[in-house]
Each structure stands twice: as C-alpha cells, then as structure tokens.
Amino acid sequence: MAPVGGTAVQDHVALAEIELCGDLMIAASAAHEDRLSLESIDEVLKVAEERDASGD
What is the pTM of this model? Predict the structure, then answer.
C-alpha cells in the first residue's frame, strides 16, 4: 500500500532501464528476422552514439 502522504520514490536508473527494454521489445516485434542483430540492438540502444560522444 502506498503511503498516505503520497511520497513516491523514483529510481531514475530503473526507469531508464525499463524504457530501454521497452524500446528493444518494440524493435524486436517490428523486425522481419527472427532475432535482432547486434548492430540493430546497438542502434536501438544508441550505443554507437555514446561511443562517439566519449571519444572511443
């Protein structure tokens, strides 16, 4: 049961992970192949953009 005062605690990391999982599920359901390729997963998760931004 939620507290009466309405003090909700948000875990921003958990919310971000849930959003990424949702993005992967949407991409997987829209994919024409049986599995997403590693490149497709990286694209959905924007991994390449993060690597480029960090200079690696």
Answer: 0.65
Q: What is the dihedral of CA 35, 37, 41, 46, to 10 degrees?
A: -150
User: Do 23 and 45 meet the contact criterion of CB atoms below 8 Å apart?
Assistant: yes
Band (pLDDT 50/70/90 cuts) for residue 10 is: confident
What's the token pair of residue 7? 């003090």
Rounded to whole angstroms, the Cα distance separating 7 from 43 reads 36
CA distance 23 to 20: 5
In this predicted structure, the answer to whether residue 24 has a pLDDT above a threshold of 90 is yes
